[in-house]
Amino acid sequence: MAMTWTVTSILVLGAAAGIGSLSLLAAVVLCSGRWLVRENRVGATGQRCPCCGYSTQGLEDARCPECGLTFQASWVRAVRRRRIALTAVGGALGLVAIASIPLADAARFGAAHAAPSLVLVHVLRLAPAWHGAITRELQARSDAGQLSASTSAALARACADLVRTQRDPAARRAAAWLLARVAVHAQADALRMMVEDRDAAVRADGVEAMRLSGAASGAGASERLNRLVVEDASAIVRKRAIDAMRYLGDDSPRARSTMLLALEDPIDGVRERALLALSESRSPSADAVRAVNAMTGDVSEDVRQAAALTLGRMAACQPDAIDALSNSLNDTSPLVRACAAIALGEVGRGGTCPAWVLPRLLGAALSDEDESVRHIALSAIRGMRG
Length: 386
Known about the structure:
Helices cover 70% and strands 0% of the residues. By secondary structure, it is mainly α. The N and C termini lie far apart (83 Å).
């Protein structure tokens, strides 16, 4: 029956080869020492010349007639030769033992683990079908800081070429995912192609690369992100585009309008991220406050939490906002009620509301059935009085 070469069998063979080589090397060293001592003790009473092997039986002269050396000189030369041979054998066995270590690693973690980083970059460029193991290994080395600046730049160029030329969506996704991790060396045209790719995963990694590299700070890139938030068919891309705009601190009127449109997104996570983006606005408009008020009645619990916290961060002591937060104190979710208490405390610390309004509202929360809500409400009241 033919033997199946699995990772386990290769690992066992590699480990056995390493242990066997080290054991054989130790045995050779010990035996060679004893053999050399024994050989040095042998005199001219031997039956053959130690150097050339000519028979010395019956000779009276202490010199070999074949090689012309005395028996003492013959032994010295023979011992020197054997020492050289044993040293070569020992060195070869040592190299085998050393080589077994990366072989065992390669058997355990894959062949990519034992290859130099620059070699992996070239293999990724020439054989993109092997992108799986190579991408994972290069990502691990990049996270560990094991890639030099030149290797990272070469990797970015290789990934950019794959994004441009590959028809296989899996290969483009792998290249885009890896390029996002070495985004400091990313190329602008490659990033543009990534965010316009027909594959959603490639577009999502392209947005991430834009964020990490700072390439999203330009006017053209900002407009592209705004368009992705509103128009992209993938929820993951829309979420990452909002995250990129938040990371870059885009608080322009165009960005605020985009976030208001994102509040109508059918995906809960997109609406939640849009609320968090609006909460970071330095000059929220009345339209934004009204839109956030409406989100306190959203069907998603996470969105209602984000809406309550956003109203608190806007510090808007407006009747509609206070009414919305008051209604959130009666929400069925204790997490939403806790967020509403936190928000009312932040509004109260802003000093724009009458001193008696918010403590009265939070006082009702002191009798909440959830202990965490009662504790937060008490802390909020103390914060306003302090």
